[in-house]
Amino acid sequence: MENENVENVNEEVLIEAKDDNNGIKISDDVVAVIAGVAVSEVPGVSGMAGGFAGGISEVLSGKKNMSKGIKVEVGEKETKIDVNIIVEYGTRIPDVAFEIQNRVKKAVETMTGLTVLEVNVHVQGVSTEKTTGEEKEVQE
């Protein structure tokens, strides 16, 4: 009789172990920041295209908003991400978009355990600003 109780306890533990998230809810904002950091590391991205409110909050807080230009829909175990970017003049847009999709998908899935169903890249503009070597060193 005692052996049956032990087996039942073990089965319950196994059932709990199969459930990956165990009631953990990841905020849309968290996923957006993870995606924003991944996008900022892609060569050829000049910046993020965000709304008026995003720009105002950056000015008032003095901090860079890493989720600017990113819209996220998080379900129970999956997510869809829209990224609005401005590309640097002279870069090949399909290559930049493909790299963004790969990096965002990998970063979000690795850090959250969510399945990324879509990463939609929307190119909102092209930056034609040329930076000299001195300005570039200061920015980095």
Write down how many β-strands occur, each being a DSSP E stretch of 2 or more residues. 4
pLDDT < 50 stretches: 1-19, 52-59, 132-140
| Beta fraction | 15-25%
Return the structural class: alpha+beta
* Radius of gyration over C-alpha positions, nearest whole angstrom: 21 Å
Strand-and-helix sequence, N→C?
A: HHEHEEHEH
Helical segment tally? 5
Sheet having the most strands: 4 strands, mixed
Q: Rough shape?
A: elongated
N-to-C terminal Cα separation, in Å? Answer: 69 Å
Account of the protein in words:
- The model is unreliable at 1-19, 52-59 and 132-140 (pLDDT under 50).
- Strands 1, 2, 3 and 4 form a 4-stranded mixed beta sheet that branches.
- The chain contains 5 helices and 4 strands; from the N terminus they run H-H-E-H-E-E-H-E-H.
- 48% of the residues lie in helices and 24% in strands.
- It is α+β, with helices and mostly antiparallel strands.
- The protein has helices spanning 2-18, 28-40, 52-61, 93-112, 133-139; strands at residues 45-48, 70-74, 78-88, 115-127.
- The termini are far apart.
Give me a quick take on this structure.
With 140 residues, the protein is an alpha+beta fold. It has five helices and four strands. Strands 1, 2, 3 and 4 form a four-stranded mixed sheet that branches.
